[in-house]
Amino acid sequence: MPTKITAIYENPKSPEEFEAGYREQIALAKQIPGVQRIESAKVWPKEDGSPTPAYRVLDMYFSDYDAASRAVTTQAASAFVGKVFESATGGVRLLFAEVEEA
């Protein structure tokens, strides 16, 4: 089954600093072996002005779980994850998910 690795970024301490380095994260993600597609999204602000439940989401799609598992053992993935944790001053969660068509 198709698999995606998702990074859920919490609200950073400085959105401007996070955004300044975000393109580098995307560039590093593109170098991970087996990545078929990358999807990035910025969470809309809440209407009442309260903090959003997350700041950004980044999805990296793979052909299957085995391909995603192999990919995370590479130096390219290590460079990506290192940059993610360096930039995600509000916190980040990384997860694997089976992609289901609706």
Oligomer: single chain
* Largest sheet report: 4 strands, antiparallel
**Strands of the biggest beta sheet: in what spatial order?**
2-3-1-4
Elements, N to C (H/E):
EHEEHHE
Distance between the termini: 14 Å
The total of beta strands comes to 4
How large is the count of helical segments?
3
User: Which structural class do you get from the secondary structure elements?
Assistant: alpha+beta
Q: Low-confidence segments, ≥5 residues, pLDDT <50?
A: none
The gyration radius over C-alpha positions equals 14 Å
Average predicted confidence as pLDDT: 95
Percent range for β-strand residues? 25-35%
- Helical residue percent band: 25-40%
Overall spatial form: globular
